[in-house]
Specification:
Layout: H1 3-13, E1 17-22, E2 28-31, H2 33-39, H3 48-51, H4 57-66, E3 70-78, E4 81-94, E5 97-106, H5 108-145, H6 148-157, E6 163-175, H7 178-184, H8 187-207, E7 211-216, E8 219-224, H9 233-254, E9 261-275, E10 281-285, H10 287-295, E11 303-307, H11 311-314, E12 318-328, E13 332-342
Parallel strand pairs: 9-11
Antiparallel strand pairs: 1-2, 1-5, 3-4, 4-5, 6-8, 6-9, 7-8, 9-10, 11-13, 12-13
């Protein structure tokens, strides 16, 4: 077998469609099997532009005139499928006759894979954005259940170690005659009122660097001095308490339902931790919480009661008057004081 015959066999065997045409009339000199499978077997008088749809004669003009290489991607309809071919045409010569060598490669699968990759990438990006939004929603939800530093510990380690805080202050607010109000009022109205009021309380608590821990029905509990210690925890809860009452006073002037509340302050130690396994709730308990809870019972409507041990810390910023000793269930005798209006405008602090 001659070298030329071997070369022809090789050209017919490769997976690339190859054809050789004359420059003069674009008539076929040679084509391999792959070319015929894709574009059909050209007749004896067929031209290259007849065999390959979409290949325009004028596009080959510059190639034939200047000898440049022509490259293009052509989409060709085959039955119900559209195939994409990468076509490269270059000049050659044989026995002083100018020829064009046509190389065709079916890149349909490559383009389909590229399209699939683009779609997959877009889907991954979309899912990533969804996950980020979901993560933000979960984070906001958890931050409503626990302080940020506790949330960071929970996020990092998966657990929250119970912490004893020796010097904290607590404010406990309870509405007067709430049970009677709730029993004779539409539940949606009751809930709307509480949401409105507690939202305002949350803003006040944040303004004075305190942390709202929970609401128990109509009761509202916030702390200062935990989880981050603060030296003015007593005045912080007292400012919150006076602002709570001031807000209710002003709100009662323009709303149908008139709210009154009793407030107890407590100081001392407390333990903070996440309680529960499936339903996480950050909670505080201990002497300071018990004291605030018990003392709010001794407060008259729209008044604030605190233990005498807070008197020194509050005396410079509030009108503090003695009430006297009272027997507190589970605690014993405690000297109480009434916390009145602020003597000077406080300096709001950012939330810890």
């Amino acid at each position: 077998m001659s070298i030329a015959a071997i070369n022809e066999q090789l050209l017919r065997a490769i997976g690339v469609g190859v054809a050789v045409v004359r420059v003069s009339d674009l008539g076929f000199v040679f084509h391999n099997q792959s070319f015929a499978e894709w574009f059909g077997t050209p007749g004896s008088d067929a031209a290259l532009t007849d065999a390959i749809e979409g290949l325009q004669l004028q596009e080959l003009g510059q190639l034939r005139a200047e000898g440049r290489r022509y490259s293009a991607e052509l989409k060709i309809k085959r039955k119900r499928r559209t195939l994409v071919f990468a076509i490269n045409i270059s000049q050659a010569s044989h026995l002083n006759e100018a020829l064009l060598v046509v190389e065709c490669q079916n890149i349909t699968r490559i383009r389909e894979l590229e399209s699939m990759i683009d779609s997959y990438s877009a889907m991954v990006e979309r899912n990533t954005r969804e996950l980020e939004r979901e993560k933000e929603r979960v984070e906001r939800l958890l931050l409503n259940l626990m302080p940020r530093s506790v949330y960071e510990e929970f996020k990092t380690f998966g657990v929250v170690t119970p912490q004893l805080y020796s010097k904290v202050s607590v404010v406990m607010l309870d509405f007067v005659n709430f049970t009677d109000f709730a029993s004779r009022t539409d539940p949606t109205v009751t809930l709307g009122e509480l949401i409105d009021i507690f939202t305002a309380f949350d803003r006040i608590v944040e303004q004075f660097g305190c942390e709202r821990i929970k609401t128990i029905g109509d009761a509202y509990l916030a702390v200062a001095g935990m989880p981050e210690p603060t030296p003015d925890h007593a005045t912080a809860v007292a400012h919150c308490a006076t602002r709570f009452l001031r807000y209710l006073d002003r709100r009662n002037l323009s709303h149908q339902h008139k709210w009154q509340a009793r407030i107890g302050l407590g100081t001392g130690s407390a333990v903070g931790s996440v309680v529960g396994i499936q339903k996480y709730v950050y909670d505080v308990f201990g002497p300071a919480v018990n004291l605030a809870s018990r003392l709010q019972v001794f407060a008259n409507p729209m008044k604030i009661v605190a233990p005498e041990e807070m008197k020194e810390a509050l005396a410079e910023e509030f009108r503090v008057t003695d009430i006297g000793p009272e027997e507190i269930k589970g605690i014993g005798e405690v000297h109480l004081v009434n916390v009145g209006n602020e003597l000077s405008a406080p300096q709001p602090r950012s939330r810890f």
